[in-house]
């Protein structure tokens, strides 16, 4: 059973948070700065602080250390969400349709709502900032339930840690998405269309698992 999480992110969704209010995830900016996550407008930090969920405990026996395979992501901000693109395959994360339980997949990147993801800030004070990833087409949250190798799905957003993703900065401006409940990272193996992302042990040793910005740069 998934561990219950704070209700702050849900309150943001229920309140109809606009795209302008979503936090930007900025990594390796053109000015040379790296690993920065912040709100889009000066003065919004306090709002996010009030909205963040309560501090959570990692599942018993799970550490914060990175382990296993590598899964690194880089987000591309969009008014209606962001593409999240795999650097190995060059393809983007998506979920087709709006059914609960629909599996995430990768496909050639395009400007479609089912490839756009809204990063809703959940916790700004833990070691890693954490977010809900809400699909712009379905309005549902990305989650993983089960052991290593379990697929990423979408489901109606609820008060569960398996819908919370920690953004962990990695080298060269990339970042990983680690599921708060399972403490494993999101990965897609191979370059075929419709390959399904799964969760696996986090590791930064495999460069063919790196993820990058939508325009193909590593800025």
TrEMBL record:
Signal is among the record's keywords: yes
Q: Where is the composition biased (Basic and acidic residues)?
A: 42-57, 64-75
Q: Which PROSITE patterns match?
A: RICIN_B_LECTIN
One Pfam match, by short name? RicinB_lectin_2
Transmembrane portions of the chain: none
Q: Which residues form the signal peptide?
A: 1-28
Which stretches make up the Ricin B lectin domain? 78-214
Stretch list, region Disordered? 30-83
The answer to whether the entry has keyword Electron transport is no
**Record SMART domains:** RICIN (SM00458)
Q: Which UniProt keywords apply?
A: Signal
> What name does this protein carry?
Ricin B lectin domain-containing protein
Its source organism is: Streptosporangium sandarakinum
């Amino acid at each position: 059973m998934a561990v219950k999480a704070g209700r702050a992110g849900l309150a943001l969704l229920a309140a109809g948070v606009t795209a302008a209010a979503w936090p930007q995830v900025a990594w390796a900016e053109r000015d040379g700065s790296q690993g920065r996550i912040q709100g889009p407008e000066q003065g919004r930090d306090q709002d996010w602080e009030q909205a963040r969920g309560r501090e959570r405990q990692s599942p018993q026996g799970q550490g914060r250390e990175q382990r296993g395979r590598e899964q690194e992501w880089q987000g591309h901000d969009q008014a209606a969400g962001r593409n999240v693109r795999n650097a190995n395959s060059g393809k983007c994360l998506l979920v087709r349709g709006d059914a609960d339980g629909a599996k995430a997949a990768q496909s050639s990147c395009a400007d479609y709502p089912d490839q756009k993801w809204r990063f809703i800030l959940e916790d700004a004070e833990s070691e890693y900032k954490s977010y809900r990833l809400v699909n712009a087409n379905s309005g549902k949250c990305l989650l993983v339930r089960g052991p290593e190798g379990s697929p990423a799905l979408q489901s109606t957003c609820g008060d569960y840690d398996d819908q919370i993703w920690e953004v962990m900065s990695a080298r060269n401006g990339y970042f990983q998405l680690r599921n708060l409940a399972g403490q494993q990272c999101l990965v897609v193996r191979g370059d075929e269309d419709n390959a399904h992302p799964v969760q696996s042990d986090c590791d930064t040793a495999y460069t063919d698992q790196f993820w990058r910005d939508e325009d193909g740069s590593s800025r």
